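Input set for joint prediction.
Command: fold jointly, output tokens.
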Amino acid sequence: MPAGIDLSLRDQAAGIAAGEIDAAELLDTTLTRIAERNPGLNAVVETFPERSREMLAAAPAGPLHGVPVVIKDEWPLPWRAQRFGAAEMLAPSAPGESGPYRALRDAGAVIVGVGNMHELGSGSTGNVSFYGPARNPWDPERCPGGSSSGPAAAVAARMVAGAVGADGVGSIRYPAAYCGLTGLKPTFGRAAMAGHHMAAVTSMIVSGPLCIDAADARLLGSVLCGEELAAGEPRGLRIGVVRDLVSEDVEAPVRASCAKALGLLCAETGGELVEIDLPDLETSALAAVLIANTEGMAGLSPARLNDLDPELSPLGRGLLKFRMLLPAAASVKAAQVRALFRQRVAALFEEVDLIAWPTVPAVAPPLEAPLVELPSGTTTADQANVRGGALANLTGIPAISLPAGFSEGLPIGLQLQAPWGRDELLLDTAEALERANGRAKVEARPPLAQPAGEAAGA
Amino acid sequence: MGDSNRGDDFIPAGLAALGIEADEIELAVMNAAKAMFWPPILELFDFDASAARAEPRPDLSRPPAA
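tokens >
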């Protein structure tokens, strides 16, 4: 393979800008890499070489000039309507210039493919999709996470160095954790959302980057946010930790890896861990699920539900009909819970700079049966994951998942959450952790993405 | 209140009221969803959120107004 394909997003950009990497050659190499690695992973559901070459030919001299990226099947492109991972969209969709597309185009990036996703965005595992399940590059029999399954799997397999996902209830952070990536959920409203079929009704969903490391997430995140997420040096961090199910009811290796990462982070930044009280997190997760589910029903009717495409999964059809029965009073109560948690979280951020807990309580579960074994017993990955992923969407705060370790060859993710608008602090802290552990976690590659002659780095 | 008023009849009654059709598999999914979500939803109604200041149209990009 020619130089460039295995470099970071920023090094690809810098190499192209310096004339050391030929962007057309990198595009061809990327398409070849996708053709080689994707059949076993189903991460990329469509490529369009001629469109990509047209984007490259017209690419301005932006921060991602000539750099190939993948975008989730949640955003329309001028030549392709999004399918939302489903046999049919439940809202009108058409080809068009979505906000993330414009941001990428104006930055000079080249969209090289569309990433698979969990059907209708309604799962944290990625094992249900119109296109078939995406697979985890660390173990193709395991879930890659969802709903941004394909973007995460594509980056982890080094098909591309960066991808755009969307996060409505953890949908960037879960796959980042399962695939060993850095995934940023920006502050609500900060990143490009135009053109999303739910843009007018959602109070939960944001676009965001999935990348190998924090510096790349900063670069792609800055493009999506339309402003530089400036780098800083975190010192004396007060990191809030809770003694609750979200941090206690987790697999032992997950708990140990996250605790170790937090210890390293404190040592690197001169920071400290502060025990904080954030009760009723499970109630906040339920409120987030209720809000997300009811917002997703806008525009649906009983008649429409009686006319669903039979190719939609039985799970999807049943859940859509169930959602129609949710009592309106529960949604009103969920809004009250949201107000309460926004106020609780705002108060906590008077005491601490960040709130930390494992992104997900267990490593990627099997595709065939996405269940996890926790100290409290066996449960579905979705039920377990939402405990830790929902708070950021419910309140609007930014959050990030960072690679923190491995268990039996599968990645473990640590989640950090920051006050509204402090997305940069999350990236700064992620870089501090990378320094503290010698970049061992972000440099690790799944077996299929090892450079020739090198062993897996877990 | 009898069990039938809050339990097994809920899904077929709700579907019938809205005129929504569902096949056996969809009903099985709905029953599983009910088993998972309904108990916490009932608990949610009893959850005391009275300490929250009203925030009828929250700006999710910012902290709540003091």
